[in-house]
Specification:
Chain B: Pfam families: ABC_tran. The complex is a heterodimer of chains A (about 425) and B (about 250). By secondary structure, chain A is mainly α. Chain A is built from 15 helices and 6 strands. In chain B, strands 5-6-7-3-8-9 form a 6-stranded mixed β-sheet, with helices on both faces. In chain B, helix 3 packs across helix 4 and helix 3 runs parallel beside helix 5. Chain B starts with a strand and ends in an 8-residue tail after the last helix. The chains are: A mainly alpha (about 425), B alpha/beta (about 250).
């Protein structure tokens, strides 16, 4: 115990004397958290408050085109600009001047109305409900070709935005078609003053959110961002820790320690305690920033009420997992040039696999399987359980157990590797 | 005190043995010099004796104990002064010594007083609270020595303890080692300074290409080598004048 304490004191002194390193350790994660949250929060706001200019070329000039234009204009997303021609609109979009152009074909309104009327007449005729006095001879049916509304996207436009626009326009067109059908029925079998149909949607959806103390729990963007990026920052402890170990090898102090009656686990123990404290302080600072700084810069406040203990339990085990990995990399790496880039890149890979950027459920099946063995996935899942799902300690036991096992496994491999390495 | 029996070491991927079937006995209280050109196997031998690397074959005992079964006990009995400084540049001299002493379970006021005493003997009392990174090469060498003797080892291995230091620092280090030897510490020492070895060592072994080519007291070796007046003459006669560059 005396040796462990001495090792811990030594690590603390070494770390506390590297002022630049300390600043990086504590300030960079905070900067990361604030910047990412501002970007994500503002981009969310931007989608809702800033109108995206789009080109619309109207070759139809009828009521369908008018409905589409009105629908797009009344949405909070788009600012409709009339385009002179399809060719010009295409050129402007493909050169990046606009993100989207919509081309409404000629005679769309006319052909849609005619097509619907034909169909309605056909149905009514099948039910023997033709208008009185109407010529009993069958009308010669005109072939009406299907119409297509053309969309041109800037090649740099992201897939998610494209899908959102496509779905929106698809929904709008479906609604126009439905209303045209209703209108045609109304014209054929009713009078204009007494509506036969209610054209408003019958089915709607409502999101049911968890309720606690008669209050709906709706997580804000801070609660979504802080766990993910806090975890990311915690895992970045791998870099300074592995560099610290490589430095010791180069200073020759590791060689001296190998000749002394102290085991490698004790040396690693000292490092673990100090760097774990760093992780927890980092985490506490990030929570403080979320609680006190976020509201000052226009971000939603981080609500940690009733969750603080569980949050620190998750941070503790996530920190242990990160440190275990750092100890392993530090043991294996021979130079700082090996340790630093590998450590940093590996954290980014773990973050990607863990679902920090892209939710795990939308990953390909194989990556979803790989994600299951990412400690960042376990940590993120535990943080989401606490932050967003209001889980109890029981719910996070599986995740924190995996994180602890990961720490034990990586540390054990580091110790065994060190023993093997001595047998040169 | 030290009995080496048929000890060999061949590194992975190496063509030659660094130490080859070496037999040697060092008596208690001796100052034994291991002399040899670069790449002769001196550091490899000391590294094996201090448990840093494992022999390919053969065995040895120190104070009748072997490393296989008594590693921790033996580590308490031996001290190693490595060629590199092996100190934390951002810790003070006192903090370095406190830490490395703690690894031998040394603690308390008597331990602190011992550190202060050693620093005073080696002329570093006024610098005990200065960081190592501010020290000169000679000062670092002296702290390096203290870090290896705080636990009062029975056997002290020194790998080039005076390399790159000024004459004053060298004299203080040698004087301190002689004092330790008088108190009963057996010293095994490697050096390229043959004049220093001639006056300092009670016995020397000249190693070349992993084998001992001569051993005895410096006086006896000089006497037995025709036309030799110094240990350096003996050394060159036995190992040749060819350069020993290796990579």
């Amino acid at each position: 115990m005396h040796k462990l304490w001495a090792s811990t004191v030594k690590e603390f002194k070494l770390l506390s004397r590297d002022i630049g390193g300390m600043a990086i350790l504590f300030l960079m994660p905070l900067a990361l958290l604030v910047v990412i949250t501002i970007i994500q929060d503002s981009s969310f706001k931007a989608v809702n408050s800033i109108k995206i200019p789009i080109l619309l070329v109207d070759y139809d000039g009828g009521n369908v085109a008018q409905t589409i234009i009105e629908g797009l204009s009344s949405s909070e997303t788009f600012q409709v600009i009339k385009g002179p021609s399809e060719a010009k609109a295409k050129e402007q979009v493909f050169s990046g001047d606009y993100q989207l152009a919509i081309v409404i074909p000629s005679k769309l309104s006319e052909d849609l109305a005619e097509k619907v009327n034909d169909n309605v007449e056909g149905i009514l005729s099948a039910f023997g409900l033709e208008e009185e006095g109407e010529d009993s001879l069958p009308k010669e049916k005109k072939e009406i070709k299907a119409k297509e509304v053309r969309l041109y996207f800037d090649p740099a436009t992201q897939g998610s935005f494209k899908n959102q626009v496509k779905n929106g326009i698809d929904k709008m067109i479906s609604k126009i078609e439905t209303q045209t059908i209703y209108k045609s029925f109304q014209e054929q079998i009713g009078d204009e003053e007494t509506p036969l149909f209610e054209t408003e949607s019958f089915i709607s959806f409502k999101e049911i959110v968890p309720i606690e103390n008669e209050k709906e729990i709706i997580p804000n963007s801070a609660q979504h961002n802080v766990p993910a990026w806090a975890l990311f920052a915690i895992f970045f402890i791998i870099v300074p820790l592995s560099i610290n170990m490589v430095k010791e090898k180069h200073q020759g102090t590791f060689v001296r320690l190998r000749t002394q009656p102290v085991n490698y686990a004790t040396i690693l123990g000292g490092k673990t305690l100090v760097y774990l404290a760093v992780c927890l302080i980092q985490f506490a600072l990030m929570l403080l920033v979320g609680i006190f700084i976020f509201p000052l810069i226009g971000l939603p406040i981080l609500d940690v009420s009733g969750r603080l203990t569980l949050l620190f339990i998750v941070a503790l085990f996530a920190g242990l997992a990160a440190i275990g990995l750092g100890l392993l990399i530090g043991t294996i790496a021979k130079t700082q040039e090996q340790a630093a880039p590998f450590g940093a890149t590996f954290v980014v890979i773990l973050a990607a696999l863990g679902g920090v950027w892209v939710p795990v459920f939308i990953m390909p099946k194989f990556m979803q399987l790989v994600s299951q063995v990412s400690p960042m996935n376990w940590g993120l899942s535990a943080f989401y359980d606490v932050f967003l799902r209001n889980a109890s300690i029981k719910a996070i036991v599986p995740e924190i157990s995996l994180l602890f096992l990961f720490f034990l496994l990586t540390t054990l491999i580091a110790i065994i590797y060190n023993e093997k390495k001595q047998a040169v | 005190m030290i009995k080496i029996n048929n000890l060999s070491k061949k590194y992975k991927g190496a063509e030659m043995f660094s130490v080859s079937s070496l037999d040697l006995e060092v008596e208690e209280g001796e100052i034994f010099g291991l002399l040899g050109p670069n790449g002769a196997g001196k550091t490899t031998l000391i590294s094996m004796l201090s448990s840093l690397i494992q022999p390919t074959s053969g065995d040895f005992t120190i104070d009748s104990l072997d490393f296989k079964n008594n590693k921790r006990k033996l580590q308490q009995h031996i001290g190693i002064v490595p060629q590199e400084y092996a100190l934390y540049p951002d810790l003070t001299a006192f903090e370095n010594l406190m830490y490395f002493g703690s690894m031998y379970n040394l603690k308390g006021e008597s331990f602190k007083n011992d550190i202060k005493k050693q620093l005073e003997i080696l002329g570093l009392a006024n610098f005990s609270n200065k960081k190592i990174k501010t020290f000169s090469g000679g000062m670092k060498r002296r702290v390096n020595l203290i870090a290896s003797i705080l636990h009062k080892p029975k056997v002290l291995f020194l790998d080039e303890p005076t390399v790159g230091v000024d004459v004053q620092s060298k004299n203080v280090i040698i004087a301190h080692l002689q004092a330790l030897n008088k108190q009963g510490t057996t010293i095994i020492y490697t050096s390229h300074h043959l004049n220093e070895a001639e006056t300092f060592c009670t016995r020397v072994a000249i190693i070349d290409k992993g084998i001992i080519v001569a051993k005895g007291t410096p006086e006896a070796l000089i006497k037995n080598q025709p036309e030799a007046n110094t240990l350096e003459d003996v050394f060159l006669a036995l190992t040749g004048n060819a350069l020993r560059d290796y990579a």
